[in-house]
Design goal:
single chain, alpha/beta
């Protein structure tokens, strides 16, 4: 019997051009990469299922790709792309804050931030469901978000922006994902 893979993961877009319903966001991110004006931290917010985590993963892969195409798509042959495609990248970390929301989980992440990337330009930290972090965890994360190393990029994703503390919000470029454009109504 084959391993079961949820369809949302099996058919997850792998490039910005294949993301459906978020063209203004993907264009904004592509232009930021082209113009070398990437924020240190992003907050992707919007309803569930609209592409927040997908866009975070695509962004992380592209900014570490050694040979991106003219359309800013990952080459899929450089060591960074290969390690990302095999889920063995040491430069891209995903943390599910719904189940890893303690101050110790964030302290471990902060310790990892101190180590520069081995391959590629950036270490990218994707924190999904960031609104689930405890207040102590938010406070432990704040110092790193205020003064991150140049090689660290943070992408926070949430369905509940109002639960993010203002000091975190003020240090992020907020990108609002729309459900209407995806053909979903919430």
């Amino acid at each position: 019997m084959e391993n079961f893979i949820v369809s949302a993961r099996k058919y997850r877009p792998l490039t910005f051009t294949t993301v459906v319903g978020q063209s203004s966001i993907t264009t904004t991110l592509i232009n930021a990469i082209k113009n070398k004006q990437l924020a240190q931290a992003f907050l992707f917010c919007g309803p569930r299922g609209v592409g927040k985590t997908t866009c975070a993963r695509i962004l992380a892969k592209i900014i570490n790709c050694e040979h991106p195409t003219e359309n800013l798509e990952a080459c899929n042959v450089c060591p960074s792309c290969v390690s990302f495609n095999t889920s063995s990248s040491f430069n891209i970390f995903e943390l599910d804050a719904a189940s890893n929301n303690s101050v110790d989980d964030i302290r471990n992440l902060v310790d990892q931030v101190r180590i520069p990337p081995q391959i590629g330009k950036y270490k990218v930290y994707i924190i999904d469901e960031v609104h689930m972090l405890s207040s102590q965890a938010f406070n432990a994360f704040l110092k790193t978000l205020e003064e991150p190393p140049a090689y660290a990029k943070f992408i926070l994703a949430t369905t509940e922006k109002h639960k993010i503390i203002p000091t975190i919000l003020s240090r992020c470029q907020v990108i609002r994902f729309s459900a209407y454009q995806c053909g979903r109504y919430f």
